[in-house]
Amino acid sequence: MGKKIEFFKTFVKDRDVASVIPTSPRCVKKVCTNIDFSKDFTLVEYGPGNGAFTHYLIENMSPNSRLILIEANQNFVSALKDSIDDPRVEIHNVLAGNVESVLSDELIGNVDYVLSGIPFSFLEWDRKIEVLQATKKILKDDGKFLAYQTSGHLKKPVMEVFGNFETDFEPLNIPPYFIYKIHKNGH
């Protein structure tokens, strides 16, 4: 219960936090069906918050996979650093639009997945485009951008940058989420 209370306090203080409560395990599993856990991969997660997705990813990814967490909120960064001790995981306190600044040169253009829970509805248009362009740049040619959002507001900027998307819906999460699957190369 303590983690939920801390999450709520952070939500109240930081308007860039997407939801009052962490994502449900059901929604986490549904989004993660788009990830091939049988292979080694590099995944960048934007806005891991309290780690609902992060801990699921760590439990299911291979020993040679890498998870790079991009979190703008210092309270969440501190909590993640306190709760994660895994050599496959890196934690960076930067904005998603600045992801390239913390990735090594060999990773830019070689990331398999980007997973995002950041609330794009709260971002100005230019910042949405900046984050999406940075995402496209770091993904490998057959990479996927996976996002879970509270509305369909991401469709227009995603079409401008990527030119494609598929959506699913998870009505049993609070709040209900649209789940986006976007391919770097538009297929």
From TrEMBL:
Family matches, as Pfam families: Methyltransf_11
GO molecular function: methyltransferase activity; RNA binding
Coiled-coil positions: none
SUPFAM superfamilies per record: S-adenosyl-L-methionine-dependent methyltransferases
Methyltransferase type domain ranges (all copies): 45-146
Domain of life: Bacteria
Record InterPro entries: Methyltransf_11, SAM-dependent_MTases_sf
Gene Ontology BP annotations: methylation
The protein, known as: Methyltransferase type 11 domain-containing protein
Record organism: Rhodohalobacter barkolensis
